Amino acid sequence: MKKQWCAAMCIISAAVLITGFFPEAAVSQDLCRIQQVSAASIQDNQAANLSNGDDMGSAETEETSAPQNQTEPVEIVASVKNLAYMGNRIYPLTAGRDSGNNLGVSSVGQTGILYAAELDMDEDGNKEILAVTYENSSQIAGENTIHLSILKQSDGNWNVLTETEVLGTKYGDTLYDVSFMKDSSIYYEGSVFLRKYNGKYEIFYEYYGEGMFATGQTWFMRGFRFENNTLSVIPETENIFYEGSPITMLWDETYDDIDAGTYGGMLNNYCSLGFQRPNISFEHMTMNQNQNLYLMLRLILGSDSSKEEVAALVSNGGTLDTLWYDIQDYSEAMPEDIMEFPGQQSTPAAQEQPQAAGTASSEYIIPDSNTRYLSDSEAAALGAEKLQLAINEIYARHGRVFTNADNSAYFSSKSWYQPVQGKTDAQIEAEFNEYEKANVDLMNKYR
Questions:
Q1: What is the dihedral of CA 46, 301, 176, 271, to 10 degrees?
Q2: Of 436 and 98, more confident
Q3: Which residues contact 342 (CB under 8 A, 6 or more apart)?
Q4: Which residues contact residue 189 at a Cβ distance below 8 angstroms, ignoring those fewer than 6 apart?
Q5: In the prediction, which pLDDT does 70 show?
Q6: Separation between Cα atoms, residue 294 and residue 137, nearest integer Å
Q7: 445: which DSSP letter?
Q8: What's the confidence (pLDDT) of residue 158?
Q9: How far is CA 137 from CA 28, 81, 164, 252, 326, in A?
Q10: Which end of the chain is flanked by fewer CB atoms within 10 Å, N or C?
């Protein structure tokens, strides 16, 4: 289900770099990011309880329904790594104070497979398995972290070809887990996405967060390039990290001094990777602002509580059992044909020139309408005829048989089109992912 964010934002007149991560001394009751989900989906799970230890406890691992993505790649990764699948479910969490009187949120409390899909990463004609897991860290003692792995089959056996951890660094050299499945104090959205750039596959992990108990925002991105059978950090992403307030200064059009200071250099590196000038916020990540990026995984820590309830928790103590961690696996939406990322070659100081929909490939009107949200400006610019074709294109991806002769001839000329006789529009619409549903609705508004 597509979830909507509502927020109350505090207005801060100057940028303040926070040296301690959102300390309680800086608490603001004006900033609370709340994401709405069905209350029933939380009530169906057992609520997490506070532990008597130093952390906030863990979410119950018993679920009312089994994970829904037990695909062959998942089974292979499970066999090789001895992990269970933990994606496509919502974990209930509790906020409160631990035995040391520190505010925090309980932990998801388990390790496992978040994502696994087949893809010919080395283009040798044989598919590898690209996996994202949450498991024991080799670099942070006693902690679990996000791992990116590529598994390859040799002589009938599957083995890990290359693996890397996604780690953040704070206070100079302190490593931390970027998943926020444990000890979080922020509302958080993370995404893992894939692109093919200059003929090489690259995987990016990005998160954005806002203080749950205090004022502040944070943004992080780390990229990894698959080359010579190894996943290696993309150097330009090693300094993409912001923690402070207000983050909006980074997106300000007047912030033109690209070479000045830490953040200017950070944005310069970001844009040198071909991404559009960023303006990051919840549900408006890099994935949503650029073409030909393929979403693998989306991680969300949200709450059903109001800002007043959170403020009461800060002031009066107690607990809130209305938080949750949502793991969304998009492996089934990953196409076999990964299109080359066009590269915007823009800088924060440059004038943005968005690429018009329909120009990326003669095979499609909108090549990535199934992997990102279209903007209103894109839809409005298409015109009635192209809008109808773009809507039909989404249906055609799912095998719709067109009775109109012109439509039938048009899509039959496309190499990817595979009509499925007898398949109804209702069956097709039931297969739509969240991007396809939203994009069809948006384009129908302008048609």
A1: 160
A2: 436
A3: 274, 291, 292, 355, 360
A4: 207, 208, 209, 282, 283, 285, 298, 299, 300, 301
A5: 65
A6: 26
A7: H
A8: 97
A9: 34, 14, 10, 37, 22
A10: N
The pLDDT assigned to 65 comes to 37
Q: Which two tokens stand for residue 188?
A: 């958080």
The class level of CATH for 376-446 reads mainly alpha
- Angle formed at CA 222 by CA 224 and CA 213, multiple of 5 degrees: 155
The residues, ordered by sequence, that sit 6+ positions from 276 with a Cβ below 8 Å of its Cβ are 289, 290, 344, 346, 352, 354
Domain boundaries along the sequence of the chain: 5-333, 376-446
CA distances, 411 to each of 254, 381, 383 (Å) = 45, 22, 19
Q: Are 258 and 267 in contact (CB under 8 A)?
A: yes
* pLDDT for residue 383: 84
CA–CA dist 325, 273 (Å, integer): 30
| Number of residues that this document lists for the chain | 447
Q: Tell me how far apart the 2 most distant CA atoms of the chain are, in Å.
A: 71
| Interatomic CA distance for residues 210 and 307, integer angstroms | 13
Query: What is residue 298's DSSP assignment?
Result: E
Tokens of 430: 């039931």
DSSP state of 168: E
Closest CA to 349 of 247, 270, 283, 244: 270
Mean model confidence pLDDT for the chain: 79
Q: Which range has highest mean pLDDT (62-76, 91-105, 152-166)?
A: 152-166
* Highest mean predicted confidence (pLDDT) among 69-73, 155-159, 343-347, 372-376: 155-159
Annotate 373-442 with DSSP letters as a single string.
Answer: PPPHHHHHHHHHHHHHHHHHHHHHHTTPPP-SHHHHHHHHTSTT----TT--HHHHHHH--HHHHHHHHH
Q: How many CB atoms lie within 10 A of CB 3?
A: 15
